Amino acid sequence: MGLWLVFWVSVNFLPHGVLAQVKLGSDRLAEQGFGPLKGKRVGLLTNPSGINPRGRTTIKLLHQAPQVNLVALFGAEHGLDGKASAGTEVRNYTDSDTGLPVFSLYGPGPVRKPTPAMLENIDILVYDLQDTGARSYTFISSMGLAMDACGEAGVAFMVLDRPNPLGGMRVEGPLFNPRFKSLVGQWPIPYVYGMTSGELARMINGSGMIEHPCLLYVVPMLGWKRSMVWKDTGLKWRPTSPLVPHAHSPLYQVAMGMVGEIGGVDLGFGTSRPFEVVGASWLEAEKVARRLNDYQLTGVRFSAIKSVVGRGSQKGRTLPAVKVDIIDASSAPLTPVNLFVIEAIRLAQGRDMMQIQTKAGKKWGLFDKVNGTDATRKDMLNGRSVKQIVRSWSDGVNAFRQARTPYLIY
User: Fold this and answer.
1) CA dist., res. 172 & res. 135, Å (int)
2) Do residues 58 and 125 touch, judged by C-beta distance below 8 A?
3) C-alpha to C-alpha distance for 369 and 279, rounded to whole angstroms
4) Quick check: helix, strand or coil at residue 190?
5) Residue 204 burial (CB count, 10 A)
6) What SS3 state is found at 76?
7) Which architecture characterizes domain 249-373 according to CATH?
8) What is d(CA 383, CA 367) in angstroms, rounded to the nearest whole number?
């Protein structure tokens, strides 16, 4: 079945200089009386981030709408309630509020996509999850895998579109090597891809990324522009998972998440500012912060602080740390910050984190999967400069910008 895109109202832009109040896909679906859902048995893939500006969850929106026959709920990583820690599998259960079955797409087995049995009594599966804009965040992997399962089962798929919190202009990072396909890297896109979930769904469905294209509906937003980062949308942030609690958290997750996959450092997990600091008992924070500031990265500043560690063997200890401050969310390089931190520690205090962990027997599987390639690790181990590595991304990024063009909505 081919690609279907539903526009009920043309996408408008507000006059220059006026702060847009973005209207979400879920709002526009309700305004149009849930037309495509009428007479169908509906499944919903969501979590607490699936909420409208008035605080109403999409679960309640669909469950209480007399026009909609909501028959099942689905949860991705972190579960339907969004509380499960990263990597924690969640079993199927019955939702106490609605009495509906909850099918886990991050369950034991492992189950990572809807099974035929899950889709047996469903005509259309609705997706409403707030994405973070990073390829390694597993929601977009679950979305595409669910689309493939729906295509195979003859079930329609609908995306209620939401903003990309990193904006629609930023495209950066290493491209994906299919050898490293996993739930933290499923699609051949850059690490930061600058598309909304609805746009990416169109690309997944229309460019051969899945074996079984589905009948796809995308309900677009109104008032969203590609230049917008989250603070420009006028929307409140609802945590998408435990380590993404704030509207600015996706920025820091992209900037520091790869550092966390190396190990041996604390990133402020268990505190109110995950991904915003890097700390360790051996860190010479003043030297490292000074070296990082010497790079003069646009829109990013670094400072030496004391960081109270929230978990692991260092729990409760106060460690030296470098705090990352993203001052300009629109212009700051995000993905490269990971590599500059690693390089700055090596240059400022002679500590090569990559070499030390390799000699200690670290397995690099997850690091490579998050990067979508082993090239980053090999380049860092061989002493290639970060500026050279970042330049090596350019051809892939430019090719992707062209490839995504037919699928853009805004």
Assistant:
1) 11
2) no
3) 24
4) coil
5) 25
6) coil
7) Alpha-Beta Complex (3.90)
8) 17
- Amino acid in position 25: G
One-letter amino acid for residue 295 of the chain: Y
- Fold of the domain spanning 25-240: Rossmann fold (3.40.50)
Q: How is 315-372 classified by DSSP, letter by letter?
A: TT-EEEEEEEEES-TTT---HHHHHHHHHHHHHHH---HHHHHHHTT---HHHHHHHT
Between 249-262 and 335-349, two packed helices, what is the crossing angle to 10 degrees?
A: 50
Give the contacts of 48 (CB within 8 A, at least 6 positions apart). Answer: 57, 81, 82, 238, 239
Q: Where are the beta strands (DSSP E) in 95-155?
A: 101-104, 124-128
Q: Which two tokens stand for residue 297?
A: 């990265």
User: In which residue ranges of the chain is CATH 3.90.1150.140 found?
Assistant: 249-373
Region(s) of the chain under CATH 3.40.50.12170: 25-240
Instruction: Tell which residue, 200, 214, 230, has the closest CA to residue 122.
Output: 214
Q: How confident is the model at residue 312 (pLDDT cuts 50, 70, 90)?
A: low
Task: Spell out where 58-141 has E strands.
Answer: 69-75, 93-94, 101-104, 124-128
Tell me, yes or no, if the pTM score tops 0.85: yes
Question: How do the residues of the chain divide into helix, strand and coil, expressed in percent and rounded to 5?
Answer: 35, 15, 50
How far is it, in rounded angstroms, from Cα 217 to Cα 4?
A: 5
The predicted pLDDT at position 314 comes to: 61
pLDDT digits (tens, 9 = 90+) for 105-149: 999 999 999 999 999 999 999 999 999 999 999 999 999 999 999
Query: In angstroms, rounded to a whole number, what is the distance separating the alpha carbons of residues 133 and 334?
Result: 11
Per the CB < 8 A criterion, the answer to whether 247 and 237 are in contact is: yes
